[in-house]
Amino acid sequence: MNDFKVLTRESGKAVVVNLQGFLDAHTAPDLERVFSDLVKGGKFNIVVNFKDLNYISSAGLGVFMAFIDEVRSNNGDIKLAELQPKVYNVFDLLGFPILYEIYSTQDEALQKFNS
């Protein structure tokens, strides 16, 4: 079984969600719980850092789609940062760069919320 970790921390007006390991059908509920808790807590400015994520499946991508409307309807957004090339390719194949802002660094994404 592959390890998956989700670590969160506040950074100014945003919350950074760091993903580590493999995000698939078995681990997607972990990320879903984190997003659900953030939304319930009124945290709608979210930066997801993919630097340490090695794999994402369609189930993992579905978590992002499940929350984006609610986050944006509360004047927030989910911004993506530091995607590994193989993870970016999955996002790109499914048209996510049209739906989400993707940044090469976490700091760039945070600046969009904290400026």
Summarize the structure.
This protein has 115 residues and is of the alpha/beta class.
Which secondary structure elements does this structure contain, and how are they paired or packed?
Blueprint: E1 4-11, E2 14-23, H1 28-40, E3 45-56, H2 58-73, E4 77-81, H3 85-93, H4 96-99, E5 102-103, H5 106-114
Parallel strand pairs: 2-3, 3-4, 4-5
Antiparallel strand pairs: 1-2
Helix pairs in contact: 1-2
Task: Report the portion of residues in β strands.
Answer: 25-35%
Outline type: globular
Q: H/E element string?
A: EEHEHEHHEH
CATH class: Alpha Beta
Distance between the ends: 41 Å
> If helices are DSSP runs of H or I spanning 4 or more residues, what is the number of helices?
5
Overall pLDDT = 95
Q: How would you sum up this structure, described in words?
A:
The protein has 115 residues and is an alpha/beta fold. It has one domain (4-114): STAS domain (Transcription Regulator spoIIAA). 44% of the residues lie in helices and 32% in strands. The protein has 5 helices and 5 strands. The chain has helices spanning 28-40, 58-73, 85-93, 96-99, 106-114, and strands at 4-11, 14-23, 45-56, 77-81, 102-103. Strands 1-2-3-4-5 form a 5-stranded mixed sheet, sandwiched between helices. The protein is globular.
